[in-house]
Amino acid sequence: MLGLLVLGGPAAWAQKGGDGTPLPEHFRPTVAGVATLIYDASPGRPVRLTVVPGPAGAAPTTLTLDTTAEDLQPLVAEIRELALLRPPASLGRIVRLGDELGELLLARAADQIGNASRLGVSATGPLSDLPFGAIRAPRSLDSRGRFLVETRTLCWIDPALGAGTTADSPSERPVALALADAVYRPPARPLGASMSDGGISWRRHAARRNQANTIDALGLPVIARFGQSASPALFWESTDTYAVQFLHVAVEALVDPKRPAGTALLLSPARYDEQAIPVTAGELESRLTLERESLVVLSGLDTGGHGIGPGPFVEAFGAAGASSVVASLWPVVDESATHLFAAFYNRVAEGTQTAAALREAQLRLLADPLVFDQGGEREPVEFDASHPYFWAGYRAYRGSADDCG
Hints:
With 405 residues, this protein is an alpha/beta fold.
């Protein structure tokens, strides 16, 4: 099985041009069969791709690609926009864009990476917001030209992870903390009814609660903060009281590069401003301490195509001690997310590495229709979740190429 390690976050070495500046160690594979791809998509010049073969000590090669950040920006924006349109009309254009991006970003490196079983990629500029899983592998790498996620395991690397403050020693009683949207009044109709109560959809809340509850598969005690318990005060109280090793946040979250203080987890619709939890490195580092080898899942993050990806959230939770982060580029309907994370947590519980567990869950959405049990005597409903909207926006982040291995 091939693997793709996609390295995100600071790419200072790539931005200096790869002209003799020492290569950061988190970019260097130390095992055979692994190569790292570092994309420098700085504005105003052709994109440069540096290929670092493994094991450590092999000399990197720098290539100049036939594209620029300005050329890539509309392609990335379009593939994101089409992904959000969902099926069926957008799929053909997504495939064509995926083919074009695959040729632009991967074909030139085919000779250097053809024998690598895993690839590490660091991407800056507009590529930070690109759903790499929806790129189509060029024929020089995959004779069938499939989606990249079908041939590689995608793992974004950010050196902020695993480098922050963690508990002095692992707790004997770690817990999983699940957080979903707040609901302020009881629903006026039965659970699951399509209605809105005070601007908050009870149906949506129930779906997000079900999604967050998939963390039960880990077999740890679960501390649930749903409904009126999903407040900033109770969130901080929970993190102070319990030894949190797994945190699943099924709420909307926004990146605001123009106003960093506006980068936040939103526990309710925007009208309830007091229900936002600011997400900055200083805020989380001072107030949140996670257990060693902790995992944070942010399933409702919307990066907005700003050219920074989930980086601010990864940095902030890394400062708090997270070793792994799974984050989304856009919010996905909660019914399909529930199925994806149920498969994901089952694989994590079996000891599967984070990025590999996410890929296996994504492949299940690609391969098989989802089946929804309507209860009673009603027939189950099948739902096709193979469109990239449902799976391509999720990313797994780790601190180095070796951590992803």
